[in-house]
Amino acid sequence: MILLVFVGFLGSGKTTLILDLARQLAADGRRSCIIVNEVGEIGIDQQVLAESGMPVRELVAGCICCQITVDLITTLQEVAAAFAPDIVLVEASGVAAPPAILEALSYYPGERFAAVHTVAVVDPTRFEALHEVLQPLIESQIAAADRIVITKIDEAGVAQVAETERTVRRLNTGAPVDQVSPGHSLELSALLPGAYPKRGR
Question: Is domain 2-191 in CATH 3.40.50.300, yes or no?
Answer without folding.
Answer: yes
